[in-house]
Design goal:
Strand order of the largest sheet: 4-3-2-1-5
Radius of gyration: 22 Å
Largest sheet: 5 strands, antiparallel
Number of domains: 2
Mean pLDDT: 85
Strand content: 15-25%
Low-confidence stretches: none
Helix content: 40-55%
Shape: elongated
Number of helices: 7
Structural class: alpha+beta
Distance between the termini: 28 Å
Length: 253
């Protein structure tokens, strides 16, 4: 660790097993500048930018460096930008958190990969759920809809399977992408982990739905589920992009 590095330390959301990353900027003298809430038990209760010792920042946990996205400023400039804001009031978990601040010090843009993951997956989940509901409305009272699989086969899928599968798949993707990020994976790696988990979960959900028809039904269901996830990812990507655009507008400044 050196002056100008962006540091992160894993915290646990109080009362749960879910972890998140708290970010700061290393000043190279044993101290760290970071934005934090006045009370971690109430992250929506406001906060400020503070300068603390590295041990106080770490709170006994392992600290690692994550310089992603790439810095636009030199190490000294990053440290100076952070130091200049010590004492600044204002903290918001969604649009002005510790990661927004540390990233801004290094790049000039307020971004948070953690917020992007949650908002992106929520937007994608809404998009997939809406597509499932629309499909059901489009076929009226029919119970099944035809899906052309990636292998060229056409499978008829029960409409009652589509919405639960969309929810299960996106939930699995969120957990996998979040977990990979917490473990230090890059943005690309964590996104791939989320997509793989979502694909697997959706395929399994459809396979279970098709299982009463025997092994062939389970295989056909899995193929249909995989195809629907892959197709939905294209639409979901647009929804995710829109969500990120909204976040950037909110955090501009």
């Amino acid at each position: 660790m050196a002056r100008g590095d962006r540091l992160e330390v894993e915290h646990r959301i109080i009362g749960s097993t879910v972890t998140y990353l708290h970010h700061g900027v290393d000043l190279g003298d044993g101290t760290v500048v970071h934005a934090r809430p006045h009370d971690f038990r109430n992250p929506f209760g406001g906060g400020r930018v503070v300068r603390t010792s590295l041990p106080e920042f770490a709170e006994g946990r392992s600290v690692r460096v994550r310089n992603e996205p790439a810095a636009r400023f030199t190490a000294d400039e990053i440290a100076d930008r952070a130091l200049a804001h010590v004492g600044r009031d204002g903290y918001d978990l969604v649009v002005d958190n510790c990661e927004h601040f540390a990233t801004w010090c290094a790049t000039g843009s307020r971004t948070s990969r953690q917020v992007d993951i949650v908002m992106g997956r929520v937007a994608a989940g809404v998009s997939r759920a809406a597509a499932a509901v629309s499909a059901r409305a489009a076929v009226g009272t029919a119970e099944r809809v035809a899906v052309r699989t990636a292998l060229g086969a056409t499978v008829r899928v029960g409409l009652k399977t589509m919405l639960p599968a969309a929810i299960v798949g996106e939930a699995a993707a969120l957990v996998a992408e979040w977990t990979a990020h917490q473990r230090g994976a890059s943005e690309q790696e964590s996104r791939k982990a989320g997509e793989a988990a979502g694909l697997t979960a959706t395929s399994l959900a459809f396979a279970v739905a098709g299982a009463p028809a025997g092994p062939a039904g389970a295989v056909a269901g899995a193929l249909a589920g995989a195809t629907m996830w892959i197709a939905g990812s294209a639409t979901a990507a647009a929804a995710t992009g829109a969500a990120r655009h909204v976040t950037k507008r909110l955090t501009r400044g």
